[in-house]
Here is the input.
Amino acid sequence: METEAKTDLEAAVREVLLLHGRGRGDEALARLRDVHAGCPDDLSVRYLLGGLELESGHPSQARSHLEAVIAGRPTHGQAAALLGSVYRQIGDDDAAVTLWRRFLATSPEDIRGRLNLIEALLHRGDLPEAAARIRALPDGIRDDAEVQLALGLMLHAAGEYTAAVAHYRRRLELHPGDSLVRRNLAAALQALGHLDDAQHLYEALLDESPDDAELLRNMGTLRKDRDDLAGALGFYARAMHIRRRRLAPDEIAAAGRDPAARETTMHSLRLEHEQLQHLAGQDVRVDGLDRLLAAYQEVISDLEGKAPEGRRFTLPMEHFETVGEAMHRLVHLEPVDALPGGALNPDLDVAALLVRYRDSGPGIAVADNFLRPEAVSALRRYLHLSTVWFGYGKARGYCGSYMEDGFGCGLMLQIANELRAAMPELLGPHHLNQMWAYIYDQRMQGITAHADPAAVNLNFWITADEANLDPGSGGLIVSRREAPREWSFDEYNNRPEVLDPYVAGDDRLVVPHRCNRLVMFNSNLVHKTDDFSFQPGFTHRRINVTMLFGWRQAGCEQS
Here is the structure.
């Protein structure tokens, strides 16, 4: 009987591996969970199940299985590596350090274990011990190309760019022409401000791979760092057309084998459906539009009440096969160029706006009729007709369009240039480092309290006033208190439970939503979206555009 049970288990595992090999990961995971229920103490099954849970985006479920494997087999290097990945994903740096210390207690000379401990220390921010352990590595690692690459990547991820560059250069001495290392070397040099060296590397890489979207985006960011916004937007647009192109029918199944490609949210699916309906109403030519509209309607109807609201989930393969060609894809792009005669309202009293900004104390001012009416209409056309809302994962029900992923047109470039020309003392020293647009689901909420990594923040709204059902709200709440300068990005951008008190007291400015209203403020001020109530319908969705000038570390002085 024991032999028969072992044979059945081996057959079940082969079935799981076959399903996984055919790209049917969800079925493989479900089958393996059933297998585990029948033999809960089998460490081989738990190791495989931990790997599949991790691969499917379930690190917390993977944790218990992999910890059980390590408890039973302390020297199981592959299980330790997977468990280390789990700890990184869930942010338990202390557990990762402990894991690798225990592993090395039984295998002290294991080079991979030593490297993993260094990586865990770097991730935890324990730079002195990490540096000491790097120095203690055997002399022979200088001639080990794989170790040099691993050290370069670890140090790069920890922000230790100078040290990373040294390891990347040594790797290239051992393996000249390695494109991955050249990419990373260029990125590290860029982070250090060595823009000429970085640009030469990117140009050489693009000569070899002119349609590489990642390289194009990196070159766009380098152009942005050089204060060449037109060049940056050009490279970002080229990358978007490659990364976000609509899938051909014979590409959908292959794309769907990657669970990340099927990740979405209910509010993103609804937005895409509504935008396609809007394109149909505007007589925009889209191949297969009627079929897509029917497919989206079917998918949304089937998922209502089943899929989570406000959270990411992986779209089932049968649904992805019907909407995957358009989901998070560039179905239509509406060209909007610079306007003859300018974009800013010529009657905007810039001098008075700057006085209000400086006299406010921390730096905040509001102005109505910011843009010419023609500019507002053109921006609406661009954002209503262009399917560029690729940022689908915001938990509170809004979707984003970002500069690095194609948000930008001739009109936005014109607005940025005119702003800097109109406010040379405030914005002249700061180039545009980021811009985005957000579009909101009327049934959900906006952005929680945060600060931004910039010097000056300009936010304006383009949705018609008639859409706002409560003219006294729907805008922005800005605290007059700055986020502490010593806080990290995570602390001032992702900690609403800490930052909400900043915008809860009397020392704040509540700015109601108005179409074409500008709110300009010191980016270090904590702010959040006010509660809003907008009419249903795609064109009534609340849309804000944000432009960030300069960097937080450069200070937010009212120059």
